[in-house]
Design brief:
The complex is a heterodimer of chains A (145) and B (140). By secondary structure, chain A is α+β, with helices and mostly antiparallel strands. In chain A, a hairpin with a 5-residue loop joins strand 4 and strand 5. Chain B has 140 residues and is α+β, with helices and mostly antiparallel strands. Chain B is built from four helices and five strands; from the N terminus they run E-H-H-H-H-E-E-E-E. In chain B, a hairpin with a 5-residue loop joins strand 4 and strand 5. Classes of the chains: A alpha+beta (145), B alpha+beta (140).
Chain lengths: 145, 140
């Protein structure tokens, strides 16, 4: 989001000051499709074969980082993201997410702090499959001005 | 461990940044990006001190996971861990090189985990500057 968007959203979304550690965000729920995987691989860009050729799973699998940007919809309405830069991102992959799986993404704000005059937030978020099994864990720390 | 499979090189063009930015909007129309902003507008980017429109960090960070998928396959999907710190922004027009396992771990933990194979992750720009660095690992 750039400055223009920041100016128009400033009054409608809470700022960093209002963000509470412990805030739970989500859930987001959707079905992972072959089209989503193909579009992600095209945009990266890298070949989709390892995910879709059936070698890893007959149904095909989702690249583990495909939903990493879900922190944006998770925080929508909870924090005006404005201008900021990612500081650190960690991902743990526990189980493959298969094509056709319905996944749910939820998260929790686990930290907020100031460093060198900038404001930072940390979000932990998880991707679970329809059986409730946790497939991916992510932690992101980002600045917001 | 160092071979061609452990390196990914690509150009971070403005078109590539735009295509990546459109992904989220395609999945969630309510989040469809408006034109402008520091990912696509030169003046907006420069107003916050950037050289030019900035790339999404996942756009290069995601290549680490892709390399690990190609090399370790299902083991990566079932036990992969990676953590990357972002040091400098990548901007439109930059050339990006992602290397996994190209040099020893730069910040090894005090007590190495014998149950995991850990590899250094480095991302460079065309000036040879380190723009992101960290670690990726799988269970042995």
């Amino acid at each position: 989001m750039g400055n223009a968007a920041a100016a128009s959203n400033t009054q409608s979304e809470p700022g960093w000051d209002q963000l509470n550690v412990g805030l739970r965000v989500g859930p987001l729920t959707y079905e992972v499709t072959q089209e989503m995987v193909s579009a992600f691989c095209d945009a990266m860009p890298f070949e989709a074969d390892p995910y879709l050729d059936g070698a890893l799973d007959a149904k095909g699998v989702m690249p583990p980082t495909m939903l990493a940007t879900d922190y944006i919809p998770l925080l929508k309405g909870h924090l005006h993201l404005g201008w900021g830069l990612m500081s650190r991102h960690s991902i743990r992959s526990l189980k493959p997410v298969r094509i056709g799986d319905t996944v749910t993404v939820t998260g929790t704000i686990t930290d907020k702090f100031e460093k060198k005059g900038r404001h930072y937030w940390t979000l932990e978020y998880f991707v679970s499959n329809a059986s409730g099994e946790r497939c991916l864990e992510s932690t992101i720390t980002c600045s917001v001005d | 461990m160092s071979d061609a499979n452990m390196i990914s090189e690509f150009e971070m063009t403005q078109d590539a940044i735009n295509a990546f930015g459109a992904l989220l909007g395609s999945r969630m129309p309510a989040l469809k990006r408006k034109p402008g902003g520091h990912h696509s507008d030169v003046e907006a980017a420069k107003s916050v001190g950037l050289r030019g429109p900035v790339a999404y960090s996942l756009h290069y960070y995601g290549h680490v996971s892709h390399i690990m998928t190609k090399v370790f396959g299902k083991k990566w999907l079932e036990s992969g861990e990676m953590s990357v710190a972002f040091i400098k922004p990548v901007c439109a027009g930059d050339s990006v090189v992602v290397k996994v396992g190209d040099r020893p771990l730069q910040r090894p933990v005090a007590v190495p985990r014998e149950d995991r194979q850990s590899l250094q992750v480095d991302v460079y720009n065309q000036l040879g500057e380190l723009v992101a660095a960290g670690e990726a690992s799988v269970s042995r």
